Amino acid sequence: MPVLLLVGAGHAHLHLARRAAALAAAGYQVLLLAPRYFDYSGVASATAAGVLDGSVGRIDVRALAAASSLEMHEGTLESLDPQARIAVTSAGELLAYDVLSLNIGSVADPVGVHVHPSVLRVKPLRGLAELDGRLRARGAQRAVVTVVGGGSSGVELAAHLSVRSDVAHVQLVESGAGVGAGLPAGARRRIVRLLARRGVAVHTGRVVRELGERQLVCDDGTVIAHDVALLAAGLTAPPLLAEIGLGDGRGVPVRATLQHVERDEVYAVGDCALFLPRALPRIGVHGVRQGPVLLQSLLARARGAALPVYEPQRRALAVLDLGDGVGLAARGGLWWYGTAALRLKRYVDRRWLRTYQEPVPLPRAGPGKR
Ligand SMILES: Cc1cc2nc3c(=O)[nH]c(=O)nc-3n(C[C@H](O)[C@H](O)[C@H](O)COP(=O)(O)OP(=O)(O)OC[C@H]3O[C@@H](n4cnc5c(N)ncnc54)[C@H](O)[C@@H]3O)c2cc1C
Question: Which CATH architecture is the domain 3-106+237-314+349-369 placed in?
């Protein structure tokens, strides 16, 4: 019986975990190596800023695995020998596999920036979860917060923090010419107006060289002081991938079939994959959409059938949660701002989360019929 080892309970592997019965019926012994909890990034800014309770975006992976009769090994991947096909876990277990799939996300680790250990990073998400507690711990001392990185997550966090009563001032530092890259021009202007109205100081064209506990230093010598710093830039694949020889900071190089470019038995999905047919942004949508393709690939492989390919959507809906009850939704060149956009986001996020937080049994033939 071939052993299928799933490493990390990211979006795509959660899809597989729910459908472990189909994989078992196809002849696999399925092992899942992952931390007990998965935290969902769609609500991460709101939970980090204290608007939503931390439990809202939390999935109990152990409970999900138990409900699917999946063999779970709680912990993380520490090292791996791709030749011998053996993984070593943080608990010291050795797990031999025939087929491996990696879904371990990304880390905020910009190249060439010296980052003090006290700085909170948006990825992995567990670091970000400390933000609310750190601000509350200051009591009556209102904090000056610097957010480094003006992409979607940096903008969300700056916007959220700007309406907290215990935050005195928010500074958003971005190396590019503007914030909200990738959004339509009108949406970017709307965000800039919102941030200005909320008193956020936006510094663009500033390349941060050193991000310290109480100040940052830019390449041009600019110094910006703060009480709390948040790093929301430089998402890369976890360094572990290079250590085990399956990729580099860009990710595990995969073909359209989601298989490693040189190793048919290795799959990678989500943020930790480098999709070779075309560069994909690190957004959860791809992890979610790759789940069914990965499942079908594993089932087809067991039958000796042709493997499906992942065809990424050119345009995906993105909704930013901008705090104070408003959001900004964008798809392609279209965008809209307001409370309805945030309601849509909450609806989509809750629906996805409920699938894994309150799993209902799937119809027996479900996975094969997609
Ligand atoms: C603040 C913020 C907000 C965001 N909002 C959105 C949004 O609204 N919509 C959107 O599409 N994208 C959003 N993103 C991007 C999104 O977070 C990522 O693209 C998405 O999480 C990637 O999914 P994934 O399944 O690849 O990995 P992840 O969701 O990161 O899951 C990977 C899992 O692997 C586990 N893991 C890590 N290392 C190991 C290891 N060595 N061994 C075992 N397990 C491991 C982790 O604990 C984690 O549970 C946001 C990002 C941030 C930072």
Answer: 3-Layer(bba) Sandwich (3.50)
Ligand 1 pocket check: which of 7, 59, 89, 104 to mutate, most ligand atoms within 8 Å of Cβ? Answer: 104
User: What is the rounded CA–CA span in Å between residue 61 and residue 296?
Assistant: 22
Q: Whose CA is nearest to atom 38 of ligand 1?
A: 104
What is the number of the ligand 1 atom nearest to the C-alpha of 316? 11
Q: Give backbone dihedrals phi and psi of 148, rounded to 5 degrees, phi first.
A: -100, 120
Cβ < 6 A, ligand 1 pocket: 7-12, 33-35, 38, 41-42, 44-45, 76-77, 103-105, 122-124, 153, 238, 240, 270-272, 282-285, 287
Q: What 3-state class would DSSP assign to 172?
A: strand
Delimit the CATH 3.50.50.60 region(s) of the chain. Answer: 3-106+237-314+349-369, 113-179+187-231
Tell me the chain's radius of gyration from C-alpha atoms: 21
Q: Express each pLDDT in 152-198 by its tens digit.
A: 999 999 999 999 999 999 999 999 999 999 999 999 999 999 999 99
